[in-house]
């Protein structure tokens, strides 16, 4: 059964979101309730606080999404929900609500991997030609994903330690920027120059994995040393130097992956995909490769949202992936590694 | 009135389906705390066995806390979403009161206890009046010794209920002597059928959207923040974007 109208749920971190999607590529509504202002108090997402906000918001989001899309339960052919990866208590609210509505109205349920949602948000931009490659960069994830065919996701490279977004938040704290620091660091970087020459981690290594903890330490050592000798460092230059190192590694590994796995489309997805420095650097590089086109997920669909889960749910339904009402959250859900297959 | 009642506040999971005063089906499990996985399948199975479909339901009664944070959220999220999506009534009952419903001895006191570790408990004090446990001391999260200090049972009998109650047997006997009675292993379990019978007598919640579990405890992060930022509380920390 190929669902025409999908209702989708996303609650893996600090956004409660419900969307209504038509044919897996048209957004009828995409309601996102963000808790950022709450977690700003603590300098990062507190899982129990996130879970509490999700249960406050969930039915309101359902109501708003259905009203905005002007649909009734009779119109909904399937319900898609993020069941991992993410914070378990947060995931459980979306999973519970989705299962309950599916059960109450006898609607099929589609389990969706959050990362596949980020990648397939690109369906709202263009038709995807397979095989395709995706660079997913967000607060919790940094990975290169190869899709040999629709609905098939294999990791070819991932972070060994911090996610890129995590590094941004930690560096942001030192620069006196509140959580989430990404957009502000990006803006400061645009005003500064790469003068500190931080290390480009794993650039020399012959794999597609990332590492950002060495860069983070180098950054902290530099600022700490300056503090001790009472030297004032230019914050914009610090931001620019940090961002250049992150972007260089991401772009370098991605271009190398493209050499080994030539694909016609590279998808840039995830919360950090909205980063201007990363976008323009990747654009510049991909422009030089005639055979590959860069698909950028639009800014407002880069952060966590349910529309992308609806798009992914549509693809999973095509592959006949459905779940029963015993569906549970899987906080450490991940794609298989490509090397395990080969 | 066809009623679904449920409680997953702690290790036990209990579900019942009632039609007015008649209990159509009930199931209670006490072994695995896999509520997210088991709750809806058990509801579905019981509904099928009594020839009902979800649209037959008219009211959902849920034990909405205190208890395990994840546990109370699973039952509450299920009940809230179900009542909302079917457009039916929703009733929330304290999970401690739910346990107290097992005691029927008129005029006696009931102290349901959930162990919250490090000598802390979720507890409340109830008195059986006209067959129903009424709150005498409000449900709270407290150090157990401080809790006992607040309680004067006079000449009454107090029933300590809950599978965690035996953890505090010495302290309770020390304080109340032979006036404290420990329940048997059946009365120590929350019974969704009793919850459903009692929940039918209550008024439903007015606004389903704002229904949330009674945690009875701020998260540590929030408590610390409040202490360091007196008076800075705002009404809403969540905003709609897009």
CATH-wise, what's the superfamily of the largest domain in chain A? ATPase, nucleotide binding domain
Average of the residue pLDDT scores of chain A: 95
Q: CATH top level of the largest domain in chain A?
A: Alpha Beta
Rg of chain B (C-alpha, Å): 19 Å
Helix count of chain A equals: 12
Keywords (chain B): Hydrolase, Protease
Protein name (chain B): Metal-dependent protease-like protein, molecular chaperone
InterPro entries (chain B): ATPase_NBD, Gcp-like_dom, T6A_TsaB
GO molecular function, one term (chain B): peptidase activity
Describe the protein in words:
Chain A folds into 2 domains: 5-120 and 302-341, ATPase, nucleotide binding domain (Nucleotidyltransferase, domain 5, 2-Layer Sandwich), CATH 3.30.420.40; 130-296, 2-Layer Sandwich (Nucleotidyltransferase, domain 5), CATH 3.30.420.40. Chain A is 43% helix and 18% strand. Chain A has 342 residues and is α/β, with parallel strands linked by helices. The model of chain A has no long low-confidence stretch (mean pLDDT 95). In chain B, helix 5 links the parallel strand 9 and strand 10 (180-182). The N and C termini of chain B lie far apart (41 Å). The chains are: A alpha/beta (342), B alpha/beta (242). The A-B interface holds A 16, 30-35, 37-38, 41-42, 46, 48-49, 51-53, 55-60, 62-64, 73, 88-89, 92-93, 95-97, 99-101, 103-106, 300, 305, 324-329 and B 34, 36-38, 40-41, 43-44, 54-55, 69-70, 73-74, 76-78, 80-82, 84-86, 208-210, 212-213, 215, 219, 221-222, 225, 229, 234, 237-242. Strand 3 (26-34) of chain A pairs antiparallel with strand 11 (239-241) of chain B.
């Amino acid at each position: 059964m190929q669902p025409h109208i999908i209702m989708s749920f996303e609650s893996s971190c600090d956004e409660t979101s419900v969307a209504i999607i038509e044919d897996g590529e048209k957004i009828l509504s995409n309601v996102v309730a963000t808790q950022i202002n709450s977690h700003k108090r603590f300098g990062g997402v507190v899982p129990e606080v996130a879970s509490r906000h999700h249960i406050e918001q969930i039915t309101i989001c359902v109501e708003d999404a259905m009203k905005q899309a002007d649909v009734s339960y009779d119109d909904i052919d399937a319900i898609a929900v993020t069941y991992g990866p993410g914070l378990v208590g947060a995931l459980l609210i979306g999973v519970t609500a989705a299962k309950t509505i599916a059960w109450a109205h006898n609607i099929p349920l589609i389990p969706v991997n959050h990362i596949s949602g980020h990648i397939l948000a690109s369906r709202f931009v263009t038709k995807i030609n397979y095989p395709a490659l995706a660079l997913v960069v967000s607060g919790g994830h940094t990975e290169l994903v190869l899709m040999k065919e629709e609905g098939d996701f294999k990791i070819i490279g991932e972070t060994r330690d911090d996610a890129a977004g995590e590094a941004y938040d930690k560096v942001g704290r030192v620069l006196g920027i509140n959580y989430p620091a990404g957009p502000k660091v990006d803006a400061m970087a645009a005003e500064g120059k790469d003068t500190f020459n931080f290390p480009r981690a794993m650039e020399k290594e012959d794999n597609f994995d990332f590492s950002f903890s060495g860069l983070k330490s180098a950054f902290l050592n530099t600022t700490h040393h300056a503090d001790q000798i009472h030297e004032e460092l230019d914050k914009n230059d610090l931001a620019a130097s940090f961002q250049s190192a992150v972007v260089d590694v991401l772009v370098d590994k991605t271009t190398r992956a493209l050499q080994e796995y030539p694909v016609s489309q590279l998808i840039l997805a995830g919360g950090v995909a909205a980063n201007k420095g990363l976008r323009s650097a990747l654009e510049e590089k991909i422009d030089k490769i005639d055979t590959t086109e860069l698909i950028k997920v639009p800014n407002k669909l880069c952060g966590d949202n349910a529309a992308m889960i609806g798009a992914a749910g549509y693809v999973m339904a095509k592959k006949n992936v459905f779940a029963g009402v015993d569906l549970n959250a899987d906080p450490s859900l991940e794609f298989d590694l490509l090397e395990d297959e080969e | 009135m066809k009623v679904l009642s449920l409680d997953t506040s702690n290790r036990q999971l209990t579900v019942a389906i009632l039609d007015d005063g008649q209990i159509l089906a009930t199931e209670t499990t006490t072994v695995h705390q896999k509520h997210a996985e088991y709750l809806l399948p058990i509801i579905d199975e019981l509904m099928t066995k009594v020839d009902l479909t979800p649209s037959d339901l008219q009211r959902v009664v849920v034990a909405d806390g205190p208890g395990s944070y994840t546990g109370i959220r699973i039952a509450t999220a299920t009940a809230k979403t179900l009542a909302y999506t079917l457009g039916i009534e929703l009733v929330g009952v304290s999970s401690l009161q739910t346990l107290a419903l097992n005691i029927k001895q008129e005029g006696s006191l009931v102290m349901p206890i959930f162990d919250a570790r490090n000598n802390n408990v979720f507890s409340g004090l109830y008195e059986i009046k006209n067959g129903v446990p009424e709150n005498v001391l409000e449900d709270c999260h407290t150090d157990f010794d401080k809790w006992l200090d607040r309680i004067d049972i006079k000449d009454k009998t107090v029933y300590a209920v809950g599978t965690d109650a035996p953890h505090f047997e010495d302290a309770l006997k020390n304080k109340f002597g032979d006036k404290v009675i420990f329940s048997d292993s059946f009365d120590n379990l929350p019974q969704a059928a009793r919850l459903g019978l009692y929940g039918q007598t209550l008024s439903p919640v007015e606004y389903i959207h704002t229904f949330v579990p009674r945690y009875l405890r701020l998260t540590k992060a929030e408590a610390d923040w409040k202490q360091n930022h007196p008076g800075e509380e705002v009404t809403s920390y969540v905003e709609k974007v897009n």
